[in-house]
Every structure is written in C-alpha cells, then in structure tokens.
Specification:
Rossmann fold, Asp/glu_Ase-like_sf, EC 3.5.1.1, about 350 residues, 12 helices, asparaginase activity, three-stranded parallel sheet, Putative L-asparaginase
Length: about 350
C-alpha cells in the first residue's frame, strides 16, 4: 500500500479566518481569528492524500510584512524539502495576497504546487465563500497537472491564476481577482481543474521572470529587508517625495536616522511608463545617489513597451510586473545581491 501524500495547509489569517458579531455583517469583522485547522472542517481530501496544518500567523493581511513573510518562507521552504509533502496550500488575506504569491514564487521557485487562497467574506458570514475557495485550493494543489508544473498558484471564486499575473481588481466582489490581459489559467469545477489552453505559456512566462534557483534562506532571514518604496507619476508630480526620501537616506547612512535607508524605488508611470518631467529629474538624482530605480505602469492592464518610454529615454529597467509585485521583486534582488556567498 502506498503511503498517503501529505498536503500541508499553512494559515496566515485574513478574512477567510475572520469573525463578526453577526452573520449578516460581512464588513465589520475582525480578520485572522479562526485557526487554520478549523477552516478545514468539512473540506474533502482527494484519495491518497492526508492533511497537516501549520499556523504561521493569524493577522489581517493589510499588516503583512517581512516578519511574517520570513516565517512563511521558512515554513514553505522546509515543507518543500520533506519527501512526503506533495503540495502546500496557504490561506491568506486578499489585500496583499498577490504580493505574497509572487514572493513565494520568486524566492522559492517551488517544484511542487503551492496554492494561495482567501475569502471576501468572513468565516462567520451567512454565506461565506472561504470554505469553497479552500476546497478548490485543495483540489488544485492535488491536481496532476499542477503537480507536474509546480510553481505558485492562486484560486478564488473557482478561477485559477498564476502568481505573476494575478491581481486583486475589485474591493468587495466575491470574484475580486483577475489577471489582466492574461486571464485565468483555469477553473475549478465539480471537484476538478479545467485548464485553459494557454496554461503552459503562462507557466513559462512566469518562470522566465524569476531565477531558476531558489533564493538562499540566509537572504530572506536577514533583517531589515532592503527598503524599497513605490511611488506613482501623476499630474503635478514634482519629485518632492523622492527628494525627501533621499534626505532620509543620507541621514540614515550617516547614522542620524534609525529607519533603514532607501535602496530602491518602483515608479508606476502613467500610460506606457511615462513620467512627469520634474519627477524624472528627482529620479535621476536618486539613481545617481545609488538608489535602484525600476519602471512599470500604473495602468490596471498592459505592460510598458520600453521602445517609447523605457531604457531609451530614462535608462531605468522596465519590469512587466505591476507595482506591488515589482516592489517585492526588487527587494528580493537587492537582498540576494547583499547575501553573503558560500
């Protein structure tokens, strides 16, 4: 008899673990209350699988940051080294879920599926969406095609997204997540995953954006993480915020400011990555001071085509990632460069 493969379900909190005083209240609730083990009540497992749970945190994902990310990276990285663990599901708040999904993909490059899910209604709601989302995440994690592909995936409202393309696109709807031009990679229907024809291309595109090898744990265990800020170009963007950040950087490098010095800036440009002229001058000053500047677009869909507003004009690297994920990617690049060798 074959030993059952283990599905590890890691809890970090969020609305999926939220509680309100009334079942009719889907807004005024406290996120991150219900333990992850309780969320699994009634969720079926595919044949040949057993489940194990681990509570890494139980917080509102608006408060997500390096301390919890470090613990989550450690938990997932350790699980990926266990021969009996065949897949991992992470329950997470929806507000920063896309950032954590990209962090796990970019830092760990997992060869086994890691699936993130959450909910738009708390567990105490009259009709919570969390139980079905979690059941779909289990189905996806144990799916044969996902098993073969590995990587980080997201599922909510029956849709499947890869970590590179997924974004929260609506503040309150149950189907709050989308993937812009890429669209869903598949759907979970009737306890099975129906993959779209472009799924392989999506996986290839996702893998092309990250290093082939995982980030060494000593990199993400370092503290503090590199300070990377995300700013947007807009009408009247005069660069004052960038200059203030540069003054703070100089003070921190002199030991006169306790906060970490600025190391990177992600700039969400207008349209095809255009940047207000005054902001561009401030960004050039930042680059000359040693700050790494990346350019993306603030638009909800599309990527910067660098032939018009990319390297040819500003000499800043252009990333296809949206601003929230680009910030995470730049943090990881900076910490990898700073990590001791050997």
């Amino acid at each position: 008899m074959n030993t059952p493969r283990v599905l590890l379900v890691v809890g970090t909190g969020g609305t999926i673990a939220g509680q309100a005083a009334s079942a009719h209240d889907a807004i005024g609730y406290q996120a991150g209350v219900v333990p992850v083990a309780h969320l699994l009540d009634g969720v079926p497992l595919p044949p040949g699988w057993s489940v194990r749970t681990q509570q890494v945190a139980n917080l509102d994902s608006k408060d997500m940051g390096p301390p919890v990310w470090q613990a989550l990276l450690d938990a997932v990285a350790q699980a990926l080294q266990m021969p009996d663990v065949g897949a991992i599901v992470v329950t997470h708040g929806t507000d920063t879920l896309e950032e954590t999904a990209w962090l796990l993909q970019a830092a760990l490059a997992p060869q086994r599926p890691v699936v993130l899910t959450g909910a738009m209604r708390p567990a105490s709601a009259l009709a919570p969406d969390g139980p079905q989302n979690l059941a779909d995440a289990v189905t996806l994690a144990c799916d044969a095609r996902a098993q073969a592909a590995g990587g980080v995936w997201v599922t909510l409202a029956a849709r499947v997204f890869d970590a590179a393309a997924v974004r929260k696109e609506h503040a309150t709807r149950l189907d709050a997540f989308g993937a812009g031009d890429a669209g869903p990679a598949g759907w979970v229907e009737g306890g099975r995953v129906r993959w779209c024809a472009a799924a392989e291309g999506l996986v290839a595109a996702m893998r092309a954006l990250v290093p082939a090898a995982p980030l060494p744990p000593r990199a993400w265990r370092s503290s503090p993480w590199p300070r990377v800020e995300w700013i947007s170009s807009h009408a009247g963007a005069d660069g004052a915020l960038v200059r203030a950040l540069l003054r703070q950087r100089e003070a921190a490098l002199r030991g006169e400011d306790a906060d970490a010095p600025l190391q990177g800036l992600v700039v969400a440009g207008t349209g095809n990555g255009s940047v207000h002229a005054e902001l561009a001058q401030a960004l050039q000053q930042a680059a000359q001071a040693g700050v790494v500047v990346w350019l993306t677009t603030r638009c909800a869909q599309g990527v910067v085509v660098s032939g018009s507003h990319g390297r040819a004009v500003h000499a800043w690297p252009v990333t296809p990632l949206p601003p929230a994920k680009a910030r995470v990617a730049l943090q990881l690049q900076l910490m990898a460069a700073a990590a001791p060798r050997g």
